[in-house]
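Quick one: examine this chain and its backbone structure tokens and tell me how the chain folds. Here goes:
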Amino acid sequence: MVAIDMAKVILICGKICSGKTFYCKTLQQKYHAVLLSCDEIESQIFHHTLGDRHEIVKVDIQKYLHKKAIDIISVGSNVVLDWGFWTKAERSNVSHYYQSMGVSYEWHYVDVTDEIWKRNILSRNEAVVSGKSDDYYVDEGLLNKIKSSFEVPSKDEIDCWYINQM
């Protein structure tokens, strides 16, 4: 195993509609990074039609993107991973994975107030309904899943705590 010091993986933690993708695009420009997104693959290849298979396919996509991140890092480019990393266990497992591969990484958390979060969800859903976005609609079931599953990271887990005010 060769330690890869020049490039890094930036891992973005946050809820759906917290502003992660906007933040990722900012980081992509700042660090001249390749942006890897589960949502992009689900949209472009599966057209958000996975239904009951969503969680199984998402895990496979994430494994694939972690391997691609290593490939990209190995040629000296930075990577931004744009997905939520909702649980402490997932964040810990991913940290151990990159540590074991000798890859530098940073955790960034996109924090958002409940008021802005709700506004972002409404805006996203309006864009989906009007055909202006191919994102998936955030329905009550998904909101309940987020509320019951998302674990706000502790300060010691995160290298950069970004507060989204938009």
Remarks:
- The longest helix spans residues 54-74.
- The first strand starts at residue 4 and ends at 13.
